[in-house]
Amino acid sequence: MLIDEILANWAGMPSANAMIISSLSNAGYISWTIKTTAGYGVAIPVDSDEEISEHFAGAHYFTGDILLDNSNQEHVLILVTQKEENKDQFAALCAELLAPGKNGELRKELSQSPLAWWMAWKELLGNKSVDMRVYDALGELWTLKHLAEHGEHAEWNGPDGATYDIDCESYYTEVKSTTARNKRQITLSNLFQLDPPEGKKLFLVLCQFESSLSGISINSLVDQLENLGYSRAAINDKLERLGLEKGMSARKRCYVLHAATKYTVDESFPAIRETSFVGGVLPSGVMSITYTVTLDGISGENILTDGE
């Protein structure tokens, strides 16, 4: 059985190596078992230049290059895991990936649309699709682009753990995003996030998105920011820290931006701040607070212009 051959290869091969799967390769469907720094798994040749990198339940599904015994590099589609437990179950998943099907139909489908196989298995294994809040990063990138296009020297600090998402020379900007079109609310878990800092103004931008087949995506905004002079490598590094590395399908997900509203955060803005507590500290025994603020009735400036 294919599963048995995969397990036997894993058991008998050294690390940083690829071993041919004889039963498939002899039938004309080249396949390898592999062990790399990314884990152990399987690989098959792929002609597509599409970059793929997906993670789910401890498995990594991606495109890359492997070095074969004859010192030739092969561009492949890889499925690996670093988990040592449940090898039998993972081998069964690998076998499903490699199975050529009748007259090679499954291998042909996989070659034409490698991401479709992954999404189908992710849906089945997870019972539901876990939707990453891509629009959170999207709102910050769009706001960064908007500020740069309007002459600001703006730095994106959100992924660095900074208090505020974007730092400009004379003010900070905090960005919140939502897919609720009829409700303007923000949720805060950083206790003093909307406490205006000394020496600089603080603004809040609320982006209201809707998922769509076309529109803006993380990848499209990365392109636009590079054209504005930002380092693509630096932006991708920050996106990776958010779990949005290059090749992920989530980065291609499109949204329409229906509204972008800018608010001035001052002492009158509804927020918890240091002055809300005696001595500027939380009551004894309280470790954290998460709260929701409605923006209804608060005057804001529409910063979404035609064509954006």
Describe this structure in words.
With 308 residues, this protein is of the alpha+beta class. It has 8 helices and 14 strands. The strands form 3 sheets. A 6-stranded antiparallel beta sheet has the order 1-2-3-6-5-4, with helices on one face. The protein has a 6-stranded mixed beta sheet with strand order 7-8-9-11-12-14, with helices on one face. A hairpin with a 2-residue loop joins strand 2 and strand 3 (39-45). The model has no long low-confidence stretch (mean pLDDT 88).
Task: Please name the defining characteristics of this protein.
single chain; 308 residues; six-stranded antiparallel sheet; six-stranded mixed sheet; elongated
Indicate the topology.
Elements: H1 2-12, E1 17-20, H2 22-25, E2 32-36, E3 39-45, E4 53-56, E5 59-67, E6 73-81, H3 87-98, H4 105-112, H5 114-126, H6 134-149, E7 155-156, E8 166-167, E9 171-178, E10 185-188, E11 201-212, H7 218-227, H8 232-241, E12 254-264, E13 291-294, E14 301-302
Parallel strand pairs: 9-11
Antiparallel strand pairs: 1-2, 2-3, 3-6, 4-5, 5-6, 7-8, 8-9, 10-13, 11-12, 12-14
Helix pairs in contact: 1-3, 4-5, 6-7
